[in-house]
Model the fold of this input.
Amino acid sequence: MGIILGIDIGGSTTKIVGAKGKKYIEMLQVRAADQITSLYGAIGKFLRTYHFEPSDVESIYLTGVGASFVDEQIYSIKTVKVNEFDAIGRGALALTGLSKALVVSMGTGTAFVRTGVDGAAEHIGGTGIGGGTIIGLASQMLGKSDVDAVIALGKEGNLKNVDLTVGDILGKEVKSLPSHLTAANFGKIESMVSEPDIALGILNMVFETIGMMAVLAIKQDSLSDVILTGTLATFPQAKIVFEKFSELTGYNFIIPENAVFATAMGAIPNHQ
Done:
């Protein structure tokens, strides 16, 4: 039995997962200037890194925004395109062992997929808020376009110098509105605000916006679990924000291991 590759060609990175039978065996990601370069670079790196030959690959399953640029069989290997929302849902459920959930796929932008209900994956909406927002704002506000640098800066930031809270407005605790809740992102910029404060403010705004949209979406449903996938799910600030959402709302926000590879994993059939 040969190796099956699941490949998620995103806007800025390509993720690739190898499987044999029902077992995932290896995974990696690469960045490149364009999707086709990224695709072939990912395959080449995967084969070299894990000592496989092209002849070891039985089939390739492509998904993600970049899949639309591919019209040929890759290296004469059977190549199949997979609906991205099906892959998002299938991969998230495979990572968590759940049978149904709201999946929030956070990449350059963010997609919301209701999956496992009636055996289907349904794209219920999305937002342009995501990794692209972080890079765009950080570039203009901090002069930094390296996401790793923004993450590192954010670890040293203090939101009290950036965000206006409910406590700032009311001056006291209200039962239904804890004082630490954000009332206005970037609503309280202090004169001595630092770059780390701004970096954390950007990250916090993006994750709070995505989290609130997820809550509003799941309130209209019978679901109780929210699975967070994609590159942004690996940011340490994401874990902090979404843990607070779980505590505040009662919904179960889950960041699974290997969340960044969820869509690539879900591109491979029969792995849920």
User: Anything to note?
Assistant: The chain has two domains: 3-81, 88-158+194-257. DSSP finds eight helices and twelve strands in the chain.
